[in-house]
Design a protein that fits this description.
Layout (H helix, E strand, L loop, with lengths): L6 H5 L10 H11 L7 H7 L4 H4 L5 H4 L4 H8 L4 H20 L3 H18 L3 H8 L9 H11 L10 E2 L8 E2 H15 L1
Antiparallel strand pairs: 1-2
Amino acid sequence: MESGEGLQSIDQGSEALIGRDSATITARIRAIAGRDPFGVERSRLLDALPWEAACEFLKADAKDVDGAEEAWGMRRVKTRGDVLRLIREYLPFAWEKANGARGLSAQRSLSHFRGLVWLLGDQDAIYEQIADVAKYLFYGKPQLILISQLVGFDWRKHDSGEWKQSDGEDGVSREEALREIEMEGQDHG
């Protein structure tokens, strides 16, 4: 899929509410606690909860600030459009970290996207692709392509074209890397 192809279809109904209800989000936050070392995926999920449900997960000093509830309501992620906007806003940073072979930052970027894509509620296949650590190659660039295509983001403008498996190594071209990934997938499929 070329960049921009998925834009119209994914944006249809962007003012509709996110695809997960508060109870489901709360259960998910609890379920991933042990496998979200940076807390990034959980924080993205938390952003979608109403104040009353979010309070369970907030520290006392965050809840006791004057105007905290009002501020929460203003920044809360409520619609598909909110989620798609956050994904698009974060993609340039994520590509920068992947291009720079910044391992922890690149992994943290994918954690942001796992939370956001899961909130959509209808993109489970893409969620599974970005959550599968065995597929974390080239600092997450294959996953960034999927996410970029999902929201119609022109990833080619942000990809350096050099794909590395580790910092300090000579990279391969995008085309070589994608062929390698495709061949590996055929060997396992």
